[in-house]
Input
Amino acid sequence: MNSIAQEEQQRCPICGSDSVYIFTSRHNRRIFECSNTDCGHFFTPGLKDDQGVCIRGEDLEKESNASIEIFDERNKRLLDLFKTSLRDKPKPITFLDFGAGNAHLSRTFKRIMKADCVIYCLDANPLCEGLYPKYELNQVKSIQELPENVDFIYMIEVIEHLNDPISTLKVLRNVLKPGGMVFFSTPVGKRREVSTNAYETPSHLHFFTPTSLNLALKASGFTQVDFGFYPEMYPLPARSRMFRRVMTHAKFSIKQLLNKLPNTKNRLGHLVGLTRPV
Output
């Protein structure tokens, strides 16, 4: 059997069903769709172990500062949203920023909450090493390095980068304190490349549907989610205009951050939700 024929027989990484090749993305990634209508997951087979790691510029602090300019107000609203689920937790609240990247979200949280929170930041990209301690954020290189369990995990635009989302979610479940929660977002997967921004980043491996993401949550021991639109995920319109001005002078990818702005054609362009262990 030739290699192309073997590639055409991929198994869905979420439910294990047969999947079929549907198109090749602009980044030359072969996209497959699960044949199980109760899953419908989209994915691309990993070509190398680090394929899911985001490519970043050398000056990560400059990138972080530019992101703060764009998202700081959004981040404050997101923190207010999180606090509604954390009001009964004793302080300091312990957070894990899983897939922290340039940590602009955690920088905002720490600046506001100060000693009322402890934030651990984890990212697979070695360029992130050394950035987090500058902003009183605790760097961990693996989940196993966490010195304590945490109250709350946020993984914003991260789950689509994971080689094995279900295995990772199971590990994250084990580092939550009783009553702990996970907040996540991910671009929704669709059959046509132009109808979603999920395929615009070459390090994306998974393109979840609402059903496939809930299957992954259930398989890893989390509650399922009724997905909806979260305005807290997006900058206000004035910030969006500022974003475009800032980006004309920035040295990192404009598309990477544009992907985080709302899709006006489909207000459910991202799957966003809060889950907790069953």
Remarks:
- Residues 1-6, 248-266 have pLDDT under 50 and may be disordered.
- Strands lie at 19-24, 30-34, 42-43, 93-98, 117-122, 138-139, 150-156, 176-187, 206-207, 270-275.
- The radius of gyration is 18 Å.
- The longest helix spans residues 60-86.
